[in-house]
Structures are given as structure tokens and as C-alpha cells.
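Dear colleague,

Thank you for sharing your sequence with our group. We've completed the structure prediction you requested, and as agreed, I am returning the results in plain text so they can be pasted directly into your records. Please verify that the sequence below matches your submission; if there's any discrepancy, let me know and we will rerun it promptly.
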Amino acid sequence: MVNLKEPVTQYQKRKENYHGLQTTLEKRFRRMIGLKLLVLLGGLSMTILFFIDKKYAFSGGALFLGIALLIFLDGKHNKIQQRQKYVAILHDLNEQALWRFDQRWGAFPDTGAEFVSDNHPYASDLDVFGKGSLFQWLNASHTFLGRQKLAALLTAPPADLAQIVRRQEAIAELAKDLKWRQGLTAHGIKIAGQIEDLKAPKEPTGPQDPEELVQWAGSVKPFFNPKAVIFGIRALSAFTVGTLALVILTHKIPFYLPLGALLLQYLLLRIRAKQRNKILDTVFYYRKNLELYQELLEHIEQKHFSCDYLRNLNAGLKNSQGETAARQLARLVKISDQITGRQHGFYAIFNLLTMWDYHCLFALESWQENSGRNLKLWLTTIGEIEALASLAIINFDHPDWTRPRIVDKPLIFTAKDLGHPLLSATIRKGNDLLIEDPTRVLLITGSNMSGKSTFLRTTGINLVLAYAGTVVCAKSLTCSRMNIYTCMRVSDNLEKNISTFYAELLRIKMVVQAAGGPKPLFFLLDEIFKGTNSRDRHSGAKVLIKKLIQNGAGAIGLVSTHDLELAELEQECKPVQNYHFQEFFRDGELNFDYLLRRGVSTTRNALYLMKAAGIEVDEQDGLI
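Please find the predicted C-alpha cells below.
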């Protein structure tokens, strides 16, 4: 039997454990401060005492030992501080995980707002992105490509059946390892510096798009050719520093030798300076991201996966010599650290003396030649695993939800106890749904606020989850692979001089065109033709429904309406079936049970709702 409280228990236990570890680390941190102060005072005291006694050797030794101890302790101190940050992130991750169970996840900072598009076939209508969206609810990605991959999985047309099954297996495997998944997220947050104030969340800027870095890494074009020039530049910089040192220390070397060398170096530094600076600045700009990628790669490489999908991703992180991607990237991180000094004011003099720009450039070119072409694959792999780990959260958090069965049969959607995944379990109502030949369209009637629109979104968003490869909010779900198209939430566009009604027509045109295409379609139409009179609305909806089920590779879907006359279509068209939601009065109050029933709605509530809103209405006026 499934223990529904197990995920909450684990999150709560891990949160408490990390809180205890935070306390322990805080004590160590303070002890280390005291120890460093003790060493500092002791070292200074011994150095001064020996110096006063004219024991200069002992004084120098005490000073050296004190400095060495301080450096050692400072390193330990920094490690404790880094560990504190990491543990704090893990504590907060478990606290935030609990927010999903009590509907506080709306405070999560990353809403995926940049992915919002009114032109997408369904993303806007189904609340895939934006405030209170599916993306905000489940995202745990912190790299640019991870967020993009998750967005793609939630919006792309369904992949082939084998690919969906492979993703299902990968997500199910990742769901079992909570510790590893949270470690993956924590590494991303720690390096990217995206630790948010839980009480005052804000929209994060997120890591930069690595496209420019990937383009640089993949274009192996030596700055100098032939490579003998590289040897010459290295020899020249060594000669310049060496002769300058000899001039200063011995006065036996003519000063014009280093002076001439410096002049030559100055001219060399002027050669294609803009191109050189662009390369160095690009790598420096992505320095923080490189550290993030390295830590994420190390975390991924340490994991031994079982399913073929994840094992193949991991196998791509080694070169032909068996060297891991993390180790290769570590060399690039080290080079990027050497470029950091270019930000300081004294660097121009240092660069003139040593031609440090060229030494860094040659190191970068060597890294490009050996590893550069693999960078895109590494970052894509990180993004893929981050996205899969985000979807795995749903599997772990909801052990009572089911893995959907995607079939090759055309035009089928059946579900038991289907509910909206973003609603709290305490208020969510499940409904059974069956759309299978000969049925093609469920025509759903019902009064205002009875649950028609929510049910349409429930159906669509569960299909999105099914095609992404994760579990769905149902006891069972079987469906075909179909492109999802919706017409639910339409607004005018003043800038383009498009009215609400015309915007709806454009949306419906997109749905009709998709239905006439070579791929099966699943459509969701909510209160279509709202902007016209009842007669036109009725005739237009009737023609549209017939057209959708007669075109191309075929289409199935749901249509909600207030037009009760449209329900007569069931008698004329066999593929159409009527369903409805209804309300009831209890103790004089209007109530809804949000349960889907066969047949046509027979209830009305507009007059009651107007009164409830404070609008005075005379029932004899016959407004309804």
C-alpha cells in the first residue's frame, strides 16, 4: 500500500537533520575564529619577545610559523564556510519541497516568465509558464540549458513512443534518489549565487546563455600560425623578464636589451588586440558558469545509473582517453582564473612585461584543440539531466499518481480519477474520462463556476506531463500521441488592432489547420464564439465541431459551452457525447461538487451569482 505521507516525512526529517548540522557548523566556525585569533596573538607575541631578546632567528621562525598556521587555518575556515552555505541550501531545499504540499509553492522565484508565448498551441491556456504555472511548481534547474530543456519538454509535440518510454524510465530512476537530486540542485544554486530570501522571493536573472562560449570552444582557429610563433613569444617574454632582472640586480647587462624587448612586446600586443580581448573577455565573462558546470559534471559523473538512457548520457562525458568532462573543464576553469587579473589597474604593466595575455590565449587554444568541441555536448547533458531531475520531483512527491500508458492506437484518451496536479489534494476532485472510437468529442455543459474550464485544463495539463515522461494526477491514464491545441483564454491586441472576437477566430483557425494536418490532434475549446450573438455562436460552434472531427489524421477533444441547444448535436453526430457539471443548493447556499456526469446540464445560477456579488436584481425581470 502506498504511503502518501512518506515524501513529507522524508523532507521534514532531512530539514531537521540539516538544521542540526547548521548548528554544529556554526559552532566550528566560531571556534575557528577564536583559534585564528589565538594563533595571531601568540605568533605576534613570540615574534616580538624573541626580537626584543635579539634572538632574530627564533623571531623570524615564530613569524614564519605563525603565518603558515594562519594560512592553514584560513583554508580550514573557508571550507567550513563553504560547507555552511551548502548545508543551508539543502535545508532550504527541503523546506521549499514542503511548500508544494501546502500550496505555498507560488512563492518560488522562477516562474519561467520568459517562455510565455500567446502564439503557442497550448502553453498560455494551460498555465505552463508564468505565475502559478506548471513550470514554477516543478522546476529545479539552475543552468540556462536546463531551464530551456525543461521548457521544451513541456511544450514540444510528443516524441516517438520509444523516446517517451526511455524518459519515463530515467525519471523513475532519478525519483528514487532524493539525496542525489537535491545535491544536483544545491550545486547549481551554490555556484550560480541564486540563494533567494524565502520570505521575499524575486525573479532570478539566472545563468547566462552559454551560446557564445560554446561557439568559441568549437571554433579551433589558432591566433598565430605557424606554431613556431607561439614558441617565439614565450621565449621573448622569458628573455625580457630575465634581462630586466639582471639589469636591476647586477647592472652588468646593457639596459637597451630589455628596453628593446619591451618595445617589441608592445608592438606584438597591438596585433589584433580587439580579437584577442574578445576571446579573453568571453572566457572571463563565463567564469562563474564554468565553475557551476564543473561541479555539476562532477556530481553527475559520480552517479552510477541503471537505465540505458541515463547511462548513455553519462558515457558521453568521457573522451576517447577516458578522461572525464569535469577534469577537462577544470583546466578551463584554471585558465579563466588566470585571466581574472586583467581587471586590475596594474595589469597593463604586468602584461607588457610578461605578455600574459598571450600565455592565457595559448593555453585556451590548447584546451580548445583537446576538449573544445565537446563543450556543447557536456552542457546539453547537464541541461537534460537537470530537466529530468525536475520532473522526477513529481514522481517522488506523489507515489499515488500513475505512470501513463502511451499507445500507438489512434485517437484515444481514457483516465480514471483524473485531477488537476496544481490543485491541493484536499480540494481536488477526480473524474473519469473516456474518449475512444466512435466517440470523438465530449460536449460539456454546465452553469457558471461549475468546473468546465478547470476540467479542460486538467485534461490538457495531464497530457503535457504524460508526454514529458513523468507521472500524471490519476489512478490510470492511457492516451495516443497527439498534438495539443487549445482555444480557451483569448484577449484583444490594441497594438495590432485585433479585437477579442477576431483574436478568437485566429486561434480557432490555428486549431482547424492543425486538425487538417498529418498528425492526430487533441483539442480543448472553452466557450467558443463568446463575442457574437447566440444564433451565430450556435451555428459557428456546430460547423466547427463537425469540421474538426472530419479533417486530416483525425482529432478528439473537449468543448465546453453554455449553449444548451448545441447539445442537440449528439443526436445528429454520433462521435459527439454530452457531459455536464452541476451545482446544488444546501441551506440556501450554492455548492458545486465538480463531478462530471453524462447528459446535458439543466441548472442555471447566473441570477444567484449576481445577487451574491451585491447586484440588485428583480427576479420578475426575466434576466435569465
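Summary note from our side: Residues 194-206 have pLDDT under 50 and may be disordered.

Kind regards,
the structure core
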